Amino acid sequence: MEKLVYLLTITFLSMALLVPLRGQCEAARAAAATSCHAGTGAAAAAATSCSRNRCGGKSAGKQKQQPQVEGMFVFGSSLVDNGNNNFLNGSGVRADYLPYGVDFPLGPSGRFSNGRNVIDALGELLGLRGLVPPFADRRTRRARAALLRGVNFASGGSGILDHTGQGEVVSLRQQITNFESVTLPDLRAQLRGPAAAANRGRAKGQDSFHQCYLSKCLFVIGTGGNDYLLNYFNPRKNGAEGGPPLSEFTTSLITKLSDHLQRLYDLGARKFVIFSIQPTGCTPVVRAFLNITGAACIEPVNDAVALFNSELRRLVDGARPPRMPAARFAYIDSYKIIRDMLDHPAKHGVRETSRACCEMSTRSSGVLCKKQGPVCRDRTEYVFFDGLHPTDAVNARIARKGYGSSSPDHAYPINVKKLAML
Q1: What does the alpha-carbon distance between residue 169 and residue 73 come to, in Å, rounded to a whole number?
Q2: Residue 17: what pLDDT?
Q3: Residues 389, 392, 405, 410: which is the catalytic one?
């Protein structure tokens, strides 16, 4: 075990990696009638979020399919980061170069994949009209239509703990602060418009902005893996005698994550999608540094993240009363979805389960792809694109299972599609 800890440390220390409200909604709709007919206007947007039919009714012509949610706000690490780290000059955890994005329409964008990440794939299933923009891109605040689809705050290399990550990363706490101090005021300014006076002085729970918009958005969290790789398995942070017992460390993580969820709830979040940690012990970088050949995984690492995942699922069961009574959750078990692909590759059309699709960079200790390096010919046959992150095909499968599966092994207690309908 000491050897495992030491080798993992060497590997990852180098990753710089919803009847009283009806009047308010009707008032907003009336205030926005003119601008709604024109197809624009902030008040119109506020009003339509209280109605299934834009501008308050069905048009005579053919309508486009409406998005299933108002927007999606994303928090977490590199598995859900869509380019925020591109704007962090001190970050060594970046994917803004080829071969990243080799199959993505925009090319290299900061997504740690050959194509889409799981957020992109989930957004497509939800019918979002375009990609969720990264917070750090200054264009996001100026692009009103994009902003209303949501914002991605995730930062590769970050974790639940403030001190997780090497180099310049944006912690989960800071990601939520960015949502609260920047994006939330921007959204309120756009969506309230002429109806703002009707809500002035009202409590947050009576605010049509929260009830007609935020409660109809999804808040997606994908984090936790780096807290194990960069903290629990890091003797330089835990000291020579080692850190706390695994159960104690995991309980601490769950408590801190619960506090972050509570903070988002207090800001108006009601629908949460939470991703589990993937089977990290099966990733190419972990296996390679322990000289594991064949299909074997490093089970002590998997055991650690599996404990976190089980506690995360219990958190979903117990988070609502009494602290978050109106919250609803969909827990997506990425661990089991990926593990099934690893254990039964032929069933899923997968050929390579242990190696990365791209040539690895020695500067990232086998985590990230080499710049301009070669890649495998058929990316659909690979589980991992680089040393740690899944391919487009795997991300799409996780999104499909999380969105539509009726199995509690994939989505619990409900899937994302049902969550969006609430």
Answers
A1: 18
A2: 37
A3: 389
